Amino acid sequence: MGALRLTLLLLALLAAAVAGARPSEVAVGALFTYDSTIGRAARLAIELAVDDVNADRTVLAGTQLKLITQDTNCSGFLGTIEALQLMEKNVVAVIGPQSSGIGHVISHVVNELHVPLLSFAATDPTLSASEYPYFIRTTISDCFQMNAIASIVDYYQWKEVTAIFVDDDYGRGGVSALGDALAAKRARISYKAAIPPNSNADVINDVLFRANMMESRVMVVHVNPDTGMRIFSIANKLQMMASGYVWIVTDWLAAVLDSSTSRDLKDMSHIQGLIVLRQHTPESDAKNKFISKWNSVARNRSITSGLNSYGYYAYDSVWAVARGIDQFLNSGQQINFSADPRLHDSNGSMLQLSTLKIFDGGEQMLQQLLLTNFTGLTGPVQFNSDRNLVRPAYDILNVGGSGSQLIGYWSNYSGLSVTAPEILYHKPPNTSSIAQKLHNVVWPGDSTTTPRGWVFPNNGQPLRVGVPIKASFKELLAVSRGPDNVTGYCIDVFNAAIKLLHYPVPCQFITIGDGTKNPNYDDIIKMVAANSLDAAVGDFAIVRNRTRIAEFTQPYIESGLVIVAPVKKATSSAWAFLKPFTLEMWCVTGALFIFVGIVVWILEHRTNEEFRGSPRRQVITIFWFSFSTMFFSHRQNTVSALGRFVLIIWLFVVLIINSSYTASLTSILTVQQLATGIAGIDDLISSALPIGYQAGKFTRSYLIEELNVPESRLVPLNTIQEYADALKRGPKGGGVAAIVDEMPYVEIFLSYHCNFRVVGQEFTKEGWGFAFQRDSPLAADLSTAILQLSESGQLQRIHDEWFTRPSCSSDDNEVGATRLGLGSFWGLFLVCALICLFALLIFFIRICWQYSKYSSSEAAGEPSEADAAAAAAAAASVAAERQRRPSRLGSFKELMQFVDKKEEEVRRTMKRRSSEKDNQTAGSSDPQSMASA
């Protein structure tokens, strides 16, 4: 018992010793610009946070937090000096700086001295943990803010923005992140307007003037809060705050608006319609209590500036440091500093570098800070693996009147929404395009219509439009009296579409080609992609490899590859009437005629007198009936049900055969025949004949790459006359067997030469469009204009004006009529034959049944015993004769004789025998009754 008391006493003494080892106070530094929008809010917030920490007995019990502040004076040089002076005071952590530029410099210092740096306002994404391990960002990185801006740009379907930014680490880092975020949304920064730091009004005016010359009207402004308002005043003088413009401003403007307690109405008139982002801080009792306390102290100190969101992050940063120090001390660590042997005072130097000490427990303090996890004024204060705060979110504001309206939120969890992020965190994430929502916006110029986001650039340069000049097909493109006088179907469509735009588009046509040979169309598209041209107008097919490097409009004409081949008139002959059917078809048809005639004769022979007579007459009847049905002129009538059924089916077959024969014979006697025998693309590929194509077009690469046609078979052609000459010469004369080209060219070619024809069907489907640089908004507007031309009928009228030559007669468009073979009719013939066999089967079943009844009635009608004795001699001779012949042969002969009998005669015989049987039965019963009597 005594030993136990002694142990407890020793533990108590040890605990007291440990408790006594905790320092009475711990120095923490703070770096910010006192006289700045962010600094004024952060200074009071940090002081209130220190007071709250020291008043809270659950944190740093027995240890006071000592705050040492230094003013960076919005200067990188002075800020660096102030930071070094702060490090001389043996601080264990530094809150700040608010400037990203100073943060880059100071981070190198704290890395060497092992002092954690917690910045509540340095948002530059390039301040990364990999380069600056002792830098901790306790606010939201601009990487997330730029993702929010990209989501807004994508929500309104804009594709290009102009970035206006301050040309320092903060501005360049933010714009770099903006470019990456826009690229993920298939948008881009079309122009970067960099404003040098501390620029005067003239410099800002020049920068904005150049930005206004560009086509984008979506301005993203990322500058410093204390100088940014001048941008909008100058932009207003340049009439850049009018209708049609879009201004998206990063969170610096929200800090200015929140900090301005007495708004200058003149300044507010310059920023009407802007979209502004602000760090989202959820509503809570702690936040409301802090706001009330901050306002009360600000009034007592006569602070005219208001509280902004950076003040909340500064307050939470102090609490994060306090909790980190508390955990550091609770783990038994000591706060010690040691001299760095690399830092020593040089002779005559006044820098006193030796006063800078290394914090021995800096690494442990850093780890404790990274493990921070509590709920502050800004929400959860916790760091992920990238040392960014979890759950980054922004309010999206629309400036209007004397204030701003909340139109939605953005969070990294669910994107754009009109619901607060803290509510969405309790639901599954949903970043689909349907879920993205914002309230209505009042845009600059007091407009409620969403701006298009771009205009034609007002830089004095007309649109450079490349036009291919071809050696032929002048209906499509032609030049007369200089490059400015370009005419043709394609040019008229382009000019008509340009006139429908709501803004002027001056164009300068640049002709490409010498007019003797066709230029390479793929090279022209590459010139557009390389910015040597702004657009390409002409007969450009929209194909896969071109859409990868250029933007095309809606097709203004349908096009597809077809085959053109020479044709010749078919020579008539005395035996032309046999050509509609093949030999097999003639043989099977004739056999079927005879077969049906025999079937009908069998079915009608017993009941129809017209199908009876001598054998010679019956054979003649079979052939006459069979072939007379071809002309529906048969004289014999069918009386049996089965015969009529077979005849109906057969007459239907005859109708089909007659119609097909007539159509085929007409075609053979009138249509033109292919001179080369090529009837389609398969025939052309499988042959080894040369193929012509239009030089410069995509046809060559398509035939080689897609259809695997050897390049040696391809012959380039330029003009319509070359087309005709090559086809006329043919493969044997050094020409081509066929030409593969797009349908519009073929229509023009055939309007000049009628001895050629299109064979087969179109084997590709594409269209012609105008080419622009990738993501050019002009392409989308022209597509809308082309659709408007099509709906109004003007597009068809332009087509009719240029394609006015009468085309060749279409009466003989069918080329190479083919003979009809058995393959086209075997199904019909099979059905007819099966029906005939079915009718015969029923007929013979009925015959066998009748024959059975007929034989039984014959046996029943034999003479009585008295009569049998008298006929014994005759019966003996008949029996002897039957023994000399097979009984089966006799039965078959009897069956045939039965079949040859008339139906009516069989019925009378069966009826007579039935009566005789009844009489014999009655006669045999009378003698028996007399004998019994």
UniProtKB/TrEMBL annotation:
Membrane topology per record: Multi-pass membrane protein
Signal sequence annotation: 1-20
Disulfide pairings: 754-808
Job description of the protein: Glutamate-gated receptor that probably acts as non-selective cation channel.
Location(s), subcellular: Membrane
InterPro entries the UniProt entry points to: ANF_lig-bd_rcpt, GABAb_receptor_plant_PBP1, Glu/Gly-bd, Ionotropic_Glu_rcpt, Iontro_rcpt_C, Iontropic_Glu_rcpt_pln, Peripla_BP_I
GO cellular component, one term: membrane
Annotated Ionotropic glutamate receptor C-terminal domain residues: 462-805
Membrane-spanning parts: 583-603, 639-657, 825-845
Ranges of biased composition (kind: Basic and acidic residues): 902-919
GO biological process, one term: signal transduction
Protein family per UniProt: Belongs to the glutamate-gated ion channel (TC 1.A.10.1) family.
Keywords: Disulfide bond, Glycoprotein, Ion channel, Ion transport, Ligand-gated ion channel, Membrane, Receptor, Signal, Transmembrane, Transmembrane helix, Transport
UniProt organism field: Urochloa decumbens
Residue numbers spanned by region Disordered: 902-933
Protein's name according to its UniProt entry: Glutamate receptor
Pfam families: ANF_receptor (PF01094), Lig_chan (PF00060), Lig_chan-Glu_bd (PF10613)
SMART domains to which the protein is assigned, alphabetical: PBPe
